[in-house]
Amino acid sequence: MAVSRRNVLLLGGLGVAGAALGVPTTAVNAKSASALADSLMPRPFRTEFAQAPVLAADDPLGRPTIDPVDGKPIKYYTVTEQAASAQILPKAGLLTPILGYNGIFPGPTIDVYQGTKVELTVVNKLPRQHALDGHSLDTSTHLHGSASLPQYDGYASDITRPGFQKTYKYPNFQGGRTLWYHDHGVHHTALNAYSGLAGQYHMHDANSERLLPRGKYDVALTVSDAMFAANGALGYDDNSRSGLWGDVILVNGRPWPVMKVQKRVYRFRFLNCCISRSFRPRLSTGDPLVMVATDGGLMPTAQPVREYRHAGAERYEFLVDFSKYRTGQRIELQNLSNDNNVDYDFTNKIMAFDVVDEPVDTSDPTWNRIPTALVGSEVMDLQESQSTRRRHFRVKRDDSTWTIDGETWADVIASNYRKVMAEVELGATEIWEFENSSGGWFHPMHIHLIDFKIIGRNGRAPFAYEKGPKDTVYVGEGETVRLLMKFGPHKGRYMVHCHNLVHEDHDMMAQYQVGESADPDPNDPMTADPAVPAGTSSTTPSPSPSASPTPSVSPSATSSPSVSPSPSPSASPSPSMSPSPSPTPTKKSGKKSQTKGPRAGR
Ligand code: C2O
Ligand code: CU
Q1: Compositional bias of type Basic residues: which residue ranges (predicted)?
Q2: What are the pLDDT digits (tens) for 61-78?
Q3: How many Å lie between the centroid of ligand 1 and the Cα of residue 324?
């Protein structure tokens, strides 16, 4: 039975924090968020690590495999959004209903090489309504980290209804990086993404392939949190629109898994896929995580850190050198947490690594390489003196609504999608500041289209681990961040929002415009290329199928052999189309105690 939105919000109001304005100013410890019987709850380090499968490209079916305009290769992919069940909980057969791309969480990894364009068709075969709150399961798919044209950027209101599909075109001209695709459906992004609509997208390039471990030593970590209802379904509680803090940590959809590692260097692509929670990861040995890449790819210089702050949607790539550990040693990836998260008994752990005695291939030069100098990028070469304008935005809560300088997405809708928070010239370099004067919450702010360079935090230098290309920035309690960015290469309207998705939905999202507005705009995000009924062929097949030799790309484009054909982890046994049973949003009235003070290392 569906629970009404009103009830969900009421339950939210009785959440862990309980305070009228949601979470308190320091992290809180509580027993559990889940209503599931203790004996059925997952516990750390009892399940084996696995990664999502790599998505196979579609047969081009007569479509061009080379873009006639610029000679770039094109690959075609399809994912189907569907309701399914996943074996997340330890008891065999106690399944959790999810919504997933191809029915799995995380969705399949899309693995491409820089310079190969992608056309991704997303088919919405979801039930008409979400089982939890009855909202319409209209979706919009955003490839986070891609400089896509506005109509392919997952513009929140450019929805694809159940029974429809949309083909998104991704240019992939940017430097290699870890991107991710996730639902961005207007006003329901939090619950949709939490239900499972998220997956990684890896773009390789020559530099990252040369400098960093590849294949099975290049490992995706999609980290999220969840809470469970008594029947094993996902629970949902947004604490009066402050955020959701689950008591179970999932890595690639599995609770606190254990990964076997050889005595060598590994590359980890850590995506914080939580809708609200931020992490402060560290290794139990106290050894460094060697940061090599941020949201937009390689940093100019590697930065070893013992711990760091990692909010939703940020991607940090780090190297870990397991060569110095002994066989059988277990190294934990722990979470020290940050202010304004709600912590439970086991949220201080993320996953573990067990060192095994497999022979290491020392002919691979990356086996023991911890590079220092990496590569620069256009954005990291930007200088403050190049900026022609500074803009300042204050993010805050106005009653029950979160705003960016007082603006919300409801204002954008009311303006028929014309209202913008900033108009910038194509090619202009500007400084944008985000000010969070509150001590009560943090906001990961995300600007679509561009990469930025963080040039200041409260008048000081950014953290060492942030000295790389970014598209999402942790705006912590009482912080003001300064960002330097160059706008392009497209004109058009792009979203800016908080990536605490509960904040985004209520209603901390605005848009800015690059270049003068055209009317009609050939790249209007709402009208340029809307969804079509499912099953419509997206491009008229050319009559001659001989025109489709698969472009030869470097073999590394299809790297990650470890993950390709292997069956997905918690990947649902049956991506059945049956409507998911209704998750019951309940919560134990958790015992809680103030534990965390302000954290050091700022
Ligand atoms: Cu990851 Cu606008 O989103
Ligand atoms: Cu926020």
Answers
A1: 588-602
A2: 999 999 999 999 999 999
A3: 38
Task: For residue 107, give the nearest of 116, 120, 118 by alpha carbon.
Answer: 120
Residue 300 falls within a domain, yes or no? no
The letter for the amino acid at 490 is H
Q: Look at phi and psi of residue 449 and say left if phi exceeds 0, alpha if psi is from -120 to 50, else beta.
A: left
Domain membership of residue 290 (yes or no) is no
User: What residue type is 431 in one-letter code?
Assistant: I
Higher confidence at residue 243 or residue 568? 243
Residue position matching structure tokens 């400098």: 211
Q: Give the residue numbers spanning the domain of 484.
A: 379-533
Name the strands in the sheet holding 177-183, side by side, starting at the edge strand that comes first in the sequence.
107-113, 198-204, 177-183, 141-144
Contact yes or no for 147/490 (Cβ under 8 A): yes
Is residue 436 in a domain?
Answer: yes
How does pLDDT run across 165-186, given as a tens digit for each residue? 999 999 999 999 999 999 999 9
Q: How far apart are CA 9 and CA 258, in angstroms?
A: 36
Within 6 A (CB) of ligand 1 lie 142, 144, 182, 184, 313, 446, 448, 495, 497, 499
What's the CATH number where 475 sits? 2.60.40.420
Query: What is the number of domains present in the chain?
Result: 1
pLDDT at 537 (0 to 100): 80
Give the Cα separation of 347 and 245 in Å (integer).
10
DSSP assignment of 84-97 equals: EEE--SSSTT--EE
SS3 annotation, 247-300:
CEEEECCEECEEEEECCCEEEEEEEECCCCCCECEEECCCCCEEEEEECCEEEE
- For the chain, the C-alpha Rg in angstroms (whole number) is 23
DSSP 93-128: T--EEEEEETTBSSEEEEEEETT-EEEEEEEE---S
166: its two tokens: 């949309």
Atom of ligand 1 at shortest distance to CA of 144? 1
Ligand nearest to the CA of 495: 1
Residue whose CA lies nearest to ligand 1 atom number 3: 144
250 CB-contact burial (10 Å; exposed 0-12 / middle 13-18 / buried 19+): buried
Chain center to CA of 181: 7
> What is d(CA 407, CA 495) in angstroms, rounded to the nearest whole number?
12
Name the residue at shortest CA distance from atom 1 of ligand 1.
Answer: 144
Structural domain contains residue 598: no
Look at the pTM and tell me if it is higher than 0.70: yes
472 Cα nearest atom in ligand 1 = 1
| Nearest alpha-carbon partner for 336 in 29, 19, 106, 46 | 29
Nearest CA to 559 out of 14, 180, 51 is that of 51
Give tens-digit pLDDT for 262-320. 999 999 999 999 999 999 999 999 999 999 999 999 999 999 999 999 999 999 999 99
For residues 28 and 37, give the distance between their C-alpha atoms in angstroms, rounded to a whole number: 22
- CA of 503 relative to ligand 2 center, distance in Å: 5
Cβ-based neighbour number of residue 193 at 10 Å: 24
